[in-house]
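Shipment paperwork, digital attachment
Item: protein structure file
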Amino acid sequence: LAHPTGKILVVGHGLLFQILTTVLLGLPLARLREAPMLKNTTVTKLMTRNGKTFSQVYRDRQPVGTTPLQP
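Attachment content:
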C-alpha cells in the first residue's frame, strides 16, 4: 500500500499491534511475548524506506528499564 505523503495511521487493539509490529520488524511470531506487551492507548511509530524493512523509532508508555525488541 502506498500513500502520497508516505504516512498512515492505523488504529486497533493492543494484541493486534503486538502481532503487527513483531511481523513488520521481521521477527518470528514465536518471539511475540518477548517484548513488553503494548498497553492500551500506546502510540508506536515505525519507519521504512523501502516498504519492506521496518524499524521501531518511537513507542510511548514503554515500561521503564526495557528496550524495544529488535531482530
